[in-house]
């Protein structure tokens, strides 16, 4: 989407679909200022009845060799800042998606394990859903971070501690093969 004109006064005049009742922010490699303007216009027009929904708050996505790219959380934060309100997050670490899947497939949380590489999304979601949690150290989290949370007296930090960890997901595959 392009901005509809050369001046800010033109940008707020972009046509809006009157049936839109929510703005969903997910991973978008084509995120732009024009989309940010459009999201804000929908949210302002709809007020509190227009939902602001984010898929997740991952701030960074790790790549091989220590490189990273901005995650969806950066886009969610941009829209939240413009709209001056907080998004409803339907992905990790909130339990919304797990509850949907658990109902559909009749999952038993006591027989379900959450495997992930992030404490603040994967492991926290697993703990929020009363699942066994397994951290793989091939992502953004280090064992020193886990130990820091484990040794803390802060209940919020303790919720970031996994039940188990492996250096690599390959280690888990070896155990499952036995």
From TrEMBL:
The gene is Pgp. One of its GO terms (cellular component) is plasma membrane. It is found in: Cell membrane; Cytoplasm, Cytosol. Keywords: Cell membrane, Cytoplasm, Membrane. The keyword Cytoplasm applies. One of its GO terms (molecular function) is sn-glycerol 3-phosphatase activity. Pfam families: Hydrolase_like (PF13242). It is a peripheral membrane protein. Transmembrane segments: none annotated. Its main location: membrane. This is PGP phosphatase.
């Amino acid at each position: 989407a392009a901005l509809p004109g050369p001046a800010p006064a033109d940008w707020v005049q972009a046509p809006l679909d009157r049936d839109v009742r929510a703005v969903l922010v997910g991973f978008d490699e084509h995120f732009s200022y024009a989309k940010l303007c459009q999201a804000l216009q929908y949210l302002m027009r709809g007020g509190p009845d227009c939902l602001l929904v984010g898929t997740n708050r991952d701030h960074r996505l790790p790549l091989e060799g220590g490189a990273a790219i901005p995650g969806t959380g950066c886009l969610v934060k941009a829209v939240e800042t413009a709209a001056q309100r907080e998004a409803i997050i339907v992905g990790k670490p909130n339990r919304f998606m797990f509850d949907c899947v658990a109902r559909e497939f009749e999952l038993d949380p006591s027989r379900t394990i959450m495997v992930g590489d992030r404490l603040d999304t994967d492991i926290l979601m697993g703990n929020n859903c009363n699942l066994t949690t397994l951290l793989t150290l091939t992502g953004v989290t280090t064992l020193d971070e886990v130990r820091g949370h484990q040794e803390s007296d802060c209940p919020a930090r303790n919720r970031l501690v996994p039940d188990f960890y492996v250096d690599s997901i390959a280690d888990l595959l070896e155990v499952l093969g036995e």
